[in-house]
Design goal:
heterodimer; A: mainly alpha; two-stranded antiparallel ribbon; 11 helices; globular; B: mainly alpha; two-stranded antiparallel sheet
Chain lengths: ~290, ~300
């Protein structure tokens, strides 16, 4: 069977890869958007924290024998806790300054973390086995879907929409949104805004680590795995606009699919297509597809 | 002004006599990066715009100069001029996109655009992909002076560096530079005074990109090599670090910062990945405790801008 002269196997295969990449774009840009909402900084360390997630899972398995499911729960908490330490000791001292200093600080931290891991583990990737439950494939009739990949897509959708629900539909989320609009007023109502900021950063970092654990069996565990993806995610964030959580999620998945399609129809542009889309969006709607210009 | 002239004289003297003790190629590298950092600083220090993609101008001009000198056989002065124009042109296109957003978005957009440029150079045949353009001839300056001689090359690089530095110095003190500073301090106020701030920012971006290109073109002639390293995002990070160490918004800071960082990379090269870690540490220390930078601290101490 062929669609537009492309064998359907190849087309669906690339769309699946696109959807997988999109899952990670969505998770990472969601974390960036949550952090940006309250802290007003772009967390440049996000890619390194994604890599940390994958490494904690890898080390947990190889040194302590902790399986995938334990890693899925423990890793985001552990890495999120390092995020809390970073926020308390460093980032919190920069809020009164130009927000660009937050960007520079997190860039420096990313260099340190990635450098330390490259020193220790070299730059070749380490394999992480697919958990036993997810070995094998589903036969969908028109294509084979590896079970683990199906799980990643489902899990990512669930995590993204739960986060959206918590922020947009619960009381906790209402506090959070209020603090984004006017932190001093919310504090005057007796809510501990600094603690909320700290926990928000920890949560965003935890999301990155969760994405890292989920990515470990698909991509190899590599000290540099977070470097290129974070730049693409920045472009995703510019395209979606930082204003809305849903925007970050939808743009993430959407751009993953677009990238997959590009690999089928014009592979030479697959590396650059997201940046080209960013340029077009900037020309037409500078605030981003879902954003509002502040 | 007089103390800036004194500082300028010290700098010129230092670069003039340093080759007696220090390896000239190393000094030429310092001057290329110093000019690159000065160009970057024109944007962040005086315009308040943090570009995280300045490597694209350095790298583009490097390839353009190398191509012109090697494939077309142009004289070095023409190759540098052509490369500077190429980077300026790239700055027009990228600047028109990037200035549509401010602050953090500006940084992310420039980073993303430079990553796109990186992938383009990785794939197009004329750049030689991973190999780069090697064995670029330094050529005959004006068809008269043979630049394969390191002493002649040194004079050429120093002339370009001082010319670029002087241009930036002039820009900063011109009415244009003053308006740029006004936009940095309070954009809304500048708009209300009737200035077309986007226009000023774009012009500053183009000048910064073109001068960064001048540095990149010169660098590719010095090392006779144009490679992907110069377009990589880590190069954009390095120029931020140089400027931060020397002093954001100071005239001489980027020069000193470039000297410090390039020396560090040279002497610690055998440590491998530790160089990245140390650079990261310097970033953190500078942001947390040393935001004025070396020259900024001195300027603060003598209570005069440097």
């Amino acid at each position: 069977m062929e669609i537009f002269g492309i064998p359907s196997q190849a087309l669906f295969g690339q769309l699946l890869i696109g959807l997988i990449n999109g899952s990670f774009y969505a998770l990472l840009s969601l974390g960036l958007a949550v952090i940006f909402g309250l802290l007003n900084i772009i967390n440049f360390t996000h890619g390194a924290q994604y890599m940390l997630g994958a490494f904690v899972a890898y080390l947990g398995l190889s040194k302590l024998g902790l399986n995938y499911w334990v890693a899925l729960v423990v890793t985001p908490v552990l890495v999120g806790a390092t995020g809390v330490v970073i926020e308390r000791t460093m980032l919190s001292r920069l809020y009164k300054l130009d927000h660009l200093y937050g960007l520079l600080l997190t860039f420096g931290l990313a260099l340190i973390i990635q450098g330390l891991f490259r020193n220790e583990f070299g730059s070749s990737g380490m394999p992480y086995p697919v958990p036993e439950v997810f070995q094998g494939v589903f036969n969908l009739g028109f294509m084979f879907l590896p079970k683990y990949r199906a799980w990643v897509i489902v899990a990512s959708v669930v995590v993204c929409f739960s986060t959206w629900y918590v922020i947009e539909r619960t009381k906790l989320g209402a506090y959070l949104r209020a603090a984004t609009e006017n932190p001093s007023l919310v504090q005057a109502f007796g809510i501990n805004v600094p603690r909320m900021i700290t926990l928000t950063y920890g949560f965003g970092v935890g999301l990155a680590a969760l994405a890292g654990v989920m990515a470990a069996p698909i991509y190899q565990v590599n000290p540099m795995m977070g470097v290129d993806i974070i730049i693409v995610v920045f472009a995703v964030v510019v395209i979606g606009g930082m204003g809305s959580i849903m925007g970050a999620i939808l743009t993430g998945f959407g751009l993953g699919l677009v990238e997959g399609l590009t690999k089928v129809f014009y592979p030479e542009a697959s590396n650059t297509v997201i940046f080209v889309i960013m340029a077009i969006v900037l020309l037409i709607k500078p605030a981003g597809l879902f954003g509002t210009q502040k | 002004m007089t103390h800036q002239w004194v500082a300028f004289a010290i700098m010129v003297l230092a670069f003039a006599i340093a080759p007696i003790w220090i390896y000239p190629v190393f000094l030429m590298k310092v001057m290329c990066f110093a000019l690159f950092a000065c160009a970057f600083n024109l944007l962040i220090g005086f315009g308040g715009l943090l570009s995280f993609g300045h490597a694209m101008f350095l790298g583009t001009a490097g390839y353009a100069a190398a191509h012109a000198a090697k494939v077309w056989g142009w004289n070095p002065e023409l190759a540098v001029l052509f490369a500077t124009l190429c980077s300026g042109l790239l700055a027009v296109v990228t600047g028109l996109l990037a200035i549509r957003r401010q602050g953090i978005y500006f940084a992310m957009i420039t980073l993303a655009l430079s990553q796109m440029v990186f992938f383009v150079y990785l794939q197009t045949p004329f750049t030689g992909g991973e190999d780069g353009i090697q064995a670029v001839p330094r050529g005959q300056l004006f068809g008269m002076f043979d630049l394969s001689n390191n002493a002649a090359m040194y004079m050429f690089v120093m002339a370009i560096f001082l010319m670029g530095f002087a241009i930036i110095w002039r820009i900063v003190h011109s009415p244009f530079g003053q308006i740029l500073k006004a936009i940095r301090e309070n954009q809304d106020r500048a708009i209300s005074l009737g200035y077309d701030t986007d226009h000023y920012k774009l012009v500053a971006f183009i000048m910064s990109g073109a001068i960064a290109g001048m540095a990149g073109a010169t660098k590719s002639l010095v090392f006779q090599l144009a490679s992907l390293t110069d377009v990589h995002w880590s190069m954009s990070g390095e120029v931020v670090l140089m400027t931060l160490v020397g002093g954001l918004g100071t005239l001489f800071g980027p020069v000193l910062g470039a000297a410090v960082i390039v020396s560090m990379q040279n002497y610690l090269a055998h440590l491998g990945a530790w160089v990245t870690i140390i650079q990261g540490l310097i970033f953190v220390i500078c942001v947390m405790a040393f935001r004025r930078g070396i020259i900024g601290e001195i300027a603060n101490w003598i209570k005069k801008p440097l």
